[in-house]
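Re: the request from the purification team.
They wanted to know what the chain is likely to look like in 3D before they choose a buffer screen. I agreed to run a prediction and write the result into the notebook, where they can find it.
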Amino acid sequence: MQLLLWARQHFSNVGNIVDISIAQGRVVVVGDTHGQLADFCWLLRSHGPPTLENVYLINGDVDVFNLLPLATRVNSEVLVLHGGLSRTNSATLAQISAIDRRRPIPVAPVNAEDMLFFDLMWADPRAVDGVGLSAVRGAGCATFGPDITRRFCEINRLRMVIRSHEVPKSLSGVQVQHAGRLVTIFSASSSNLDTTLTSSTISWSPGTAHRSMEEDDT
């Protein structure tokens, strides 16, 4: 409880985008765990305890979800967020920073800020260019194609985007899409559909390519 109270106070004073600079060591990105403690303990055992040179970036659902920053930018080149990119092709980091996030996530977006907020939480990628509505999620949830990801990275001078939110169709814990510019990470070994999955994390060090790590918990 003390940890949650500290987190509430801390994140209330943090901006929408957190910048992390790693000169040495590595960053380990953890996707959705769906509250499965055994999976999180496995991650700690596999990657080691958090230190200044072994930084954990937890990108899944937690109890203070509504207070969390909307994204984290690592070394000014990799953006980590929960859901997906905006259905527009012109979203900027400045627009994300300007969102009023300390409120419930909009259920039915009525303006550009609400739509950007909504898509950052719930949008999913698709294989073809353009945007559309998700036939799986419904409720106005959008899908975005490789052109949206490419344009977003170009405008905001990013190398890639890492997201969670969605179980990869292969049931693997990691899926690389959109010419390598978009990576989905899912770190739970089962979903709310009682499906057995391969949980995964992604890590990288300055000057090296990203590296995924999977664990088959079947």
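For the purification team: The helical segments are 2-11, 37-47, 93-97, 112-122, 146-156.
Please add any questions underneath this entry.
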